[in-house]
Design a protein that fits this description.
Elements (H helix, E strand, L loop, with lengths): L4 H5 L3 H4 L3 H4 L10 E2 L3 E13 L26 H20 L2 H18 L22 E18 L24 E7 L2 E9 L4 E9 L2 E7 L5 H14 L2 E11 L12 E15 L8 E5 L8 E14 L4 E10 L6 E10 L2 E11 L7 E3 L2 E9 L4 E24 L4 E22 L2 E16 L10 E20 L5 E3 L4 E14 L7 E12 L3 E11 L11 H4 L7 H12 L3 E2 L2 E2 L3 H10 L2 E14 L2 E9 L2 E5 L2 E5 L2 E9 L11 E6 L2 E6 L1
Antiparallel strand pairs: 1-3, 2-3, 3-4, 3-5, 4-7, 5-6, 6-8, 8-9, 9-10, 9-11, 11-12, 12-13, 13-14, 14-15, 14-16, 16-17, 17-18, 18-19, 19-20, 20-22, 21-22, 22-23, 23-24, 24-27, 25-26, 27-28, 28-31, 29-30, 32-33
Length: about 675
């Protein structure tokens, strides 16, 4: 909040120093605009009934082979051969260190072992042994679960103005905790019951969920609002109190579930419907609610209804995978038909999808979904990644400006001509190698022409948008970050880790929006007692002028005559030590060099974290230059942002299972709760 100038002038310090009003940090003060006194949530979930009553895990048997099988050298990689040679050399050195008696005993034991194995071949090719799983085919399974969650949220808000819009908060002393603008609470009590029926594992599954989501919201105190605003709050509270009883159903059949190569092939049906809904349709003075029940012809009642068919094939432990999926939206929803193809190979994956849909429930004209295609390649243990994506649009639109007239002996019909629209919507390609990445994007959009010295034919200057869209280069980026590395000092009690990330982004549509951003960081960890992190972000939004042979970079030989020389010289000048204004040994030259550079500081951060076992103490200082308007004059200010917090690290969850077991004791059937 900004103090008024009249209040500052009343201070005696303003008479002593005329610049005190502009420079004093007391010209600004803060007040709490919103407080959350309580925010609590409670969840309860469990199983009502399940079949079978006792869970039977799959019978997993580990197969142990009597000897290790070896792979021939012709099938091994270079790294494997080098590793084996090194292991062999170390083993020989260790063997030579033993005395002859130990060696003789080892040889004798090895001979006895080979004699017991009685293998026809002394050395077999080494193969990778895997664990063989013998899974029991499950029969009928059923599970009925419930879930109840409650959430209470309360808020108190304050304002610098009263209910008539008059500013009363002019100094920190004017703030009063009792002067509440409004208070609010929101209570949610969602409840759901979910049943899962299955047969033969994934051969047949059916899921049904019934959920009810009541919500209560109210503003008990609205003293700080005018009568008109009070009615708007009351109406907003009523509108938020929606009641929905929603039923969701999913049925899936996979007829080849026990054939690994075709286990993904199957049919699934999905449906979501609102059995009961209650919505507000009145106003603050006359509240009215509308109640509606399930209507199979109403798209507001049936929100999802689809059928999908998947044809999938997997080979060599899913290293090769082909999946073809067809899906259709069923009535009463607007018809949509989509298809997708996914191909997975070692190091390469490819996907493509498209479809058609009806314009609306009344207009059955078919439109085409964009053709989406993507390709990714990963090589050298994912060190090198190449990705590409493309979107192609094909539409048939009615041109209202062009009409066709058809005349028959009895009637004359006039229709709009249909106009085809087909073009590539977007194309993206990226390449990354370790911490270095390059990306390029083309898009179907409007281009701009830049008029600086002279105006265009319509008398406009600056960026002028062209009339038609076209497929054109959109942006290109180059980014690099230092590999993560930690250095240890003083018997590993102190660690420090430098960090650096850079990004150059070139905008082909508006080149002057191109920028170069640098974010260095340094993290210290003192004996796991506290962690201190310094980071900063500087950004240069003038890199477009590095490519130009005019302007400030061409007028002085200090910057050189190419992109690399100019950006390097400008980065040096941003330190203020040396630049076109000479050495920055004095305050004035240092300031001029900094102001002339295109690199500007965007943020300066410092964070300290102290581990308190179950708690973490955090303190963050953040400095960002902000443009504020004081007495009609805009200027930069560096008001710090300080955050202090103690965060509890609780357990993620506490879980227990209550089950019933059927037992027989002394000819009596008992249900035992465990």
């Amino acid at each position: 909040m900004q103090k008024e100038e009249t209040t500052l002038k009343e201070d005696a310090r303003s008479t002593i120093d005329s610049d005190w009003i502009k420079n004093t940090p007391e010209r600004s003060f803060y007040y709490p605009s919103q407080i959350t006194p309580a925010n609590a949530s409670l969840g309860l979930n469990g199983t009502i009934f399940q079949w079978p009553l006792k869970q039977v895990s799959a019978d997993t048997k580990k197969v142990e082979y009597p000897s290790v099988l070896s792979k021939p050298d012709e099938l091994k990689t270079e790294s494997q051969l080098q590793k084996e040679a090194e292991e062999k050399r170390l083993a020989e050195e260790a063997e030579n260190a033993n005395d002859n008696n130990e060696s003789a005993v080892a040889v004798e034991n090895q001979e006895d072992k080979n004699e017991e194995l009685k293998l026809p071949v002394p050395v077999l090719p080494e193969l990778t042994s895997t664990t063989s799983n013998a899974a029991t085919v499950t029969g009928l399974t059923y599970k009925l679960d419930y879930s109840v969650n409650s959430n209470l949220n309360t808020q108190i808000s304050y304002s610098a103005t009263d209910k008539n819009g008059k500013k009363y908060l002019k100094t920190p002393e004017d703030f009063n905790w009792k002067n509440i603008r409004s208070s609010m609470y929101t209570l949610k009590l969602p409840f759901s019951v979910t049943s899962n029926l299955g047969y033969g594992g994934s051969f047949f599954t059916m899921k049904n969920a019934l959920s009810y989501d009541p919500l209560w919201q109210d503003h008990p105190n609205t003293d700080g609002y005018s009568e008109k605003d009070k009615k708007n709050l009351i109406k907003a509270d009523y509108s938020a109190q929606v009641r929905n009883l929603i039923n969701t159903n999913t049925v899936s059949i996979k007829p080849f579930a026990y054939i690994p190569a075709f286990s993904d092939t199957g049919v699934s049906w999905n449906n979501t419907m609102k059995i009961y809904r209650k919505t507000f349709k009145g106003d603050a003075d006359k509240p009215e609610w509308e109640t509606k029940w399930l209507d199979w012809d109403d798209t507001e009642s049936i929100t999802a209804h689809s059928l999908s068919l998947t044809l999938g094939v997997k080979e060599l432990d899913s290293k090769f995978k082909q999946t073809l999926t067809f899906s259709s939206t069923l009535k009463p929803l607007v018809a949509k038909y989509t298809g997708s193809l996914e191909l997975v190979f070692p190091y390469v994956s490819f996907s493509m999808n498209t479809g058609v849909y009806e314009k609306s429930k009344d207009d059955k004209t078919l439109q085409y979904n964009p053709l989406q295609q993507s390709l990714s390649v990963s090589l050298f243990n994912s060190s090198l990644k190449i990705s590409e994506s493309l979107s192609y649009i094909y539409h048939i639109n009615e041109d209202k400006n062009s009409k066709t007239t058809t005349t028959t002996p009895t009637t004359t019909t006039t229709t709009n001509e249909k106009k085809e629209e087909k073009h590539v919507e977007s194309f993206k390609v990226s390449l990354s190698y370790k911490q270095l990445s390059i990306a390029y994007t083309s898009s179907y959009t409007y281009k701009y022409d830049l008029f600086i010295e002279t105006a265009n034919e319509n008398g406009k200057k600056g960026y002028v948008q062209r009339k038609d869209k076209e497929f054109t280069p959109y942006s290109a980026s180059l980014s690099y970050s230092l590999p993560a590395k930690t250095y240890y000092q003083w018997f590993n009690r102190i660690t420090w880790a430098p960090g650096l990330s850079t990004n150059i982004n070139y905008d082909f549509i508006k080149p002057t929006n191109s920028y170069f951003q640098i974010s260095p960081s340094l993290t210290f960890n003192v004996n796991n007692f506290f962690k201190l992190t310094f980071s900063a972000t500087t950004r240069n939004s003038s890199i477009y002028w590095y490519f130009q042979n005019r302007g400030k970079f061409a007028s002085d030989p200090f910057y050189g005559n190419n992109f690399a020389a100019r950006i390097g010289a400008d980065l040096l000048e941003s330190t203020g030590i040396y630049g076109v204004n000479g050495w920055g040994f004095n305050k004035e030259t240092f300031r001029k060099n900094r102001e002339a550079s295109g690199f500007k500081l965007k943020s300066l951060n410092m964070t300290i974290t102290h581990d308190l076992h179950d708690w973490d103490f955090n303190m963050t200082w953040k400095f960002e230059p902000k443009v504020v308007k004081i007495n009609g004059v805009q200027k930069y200010v560096f008001d710090p942002y300080i955050a202090i917090g103690i965060v509890w690290n609780p357990m993620q969850s506490i879980k227990t299972n209550l089950t019933h077991e059927y037992k027989e004791a002394e000819d009596k059937a008992l249900w035992v709760l465990k």
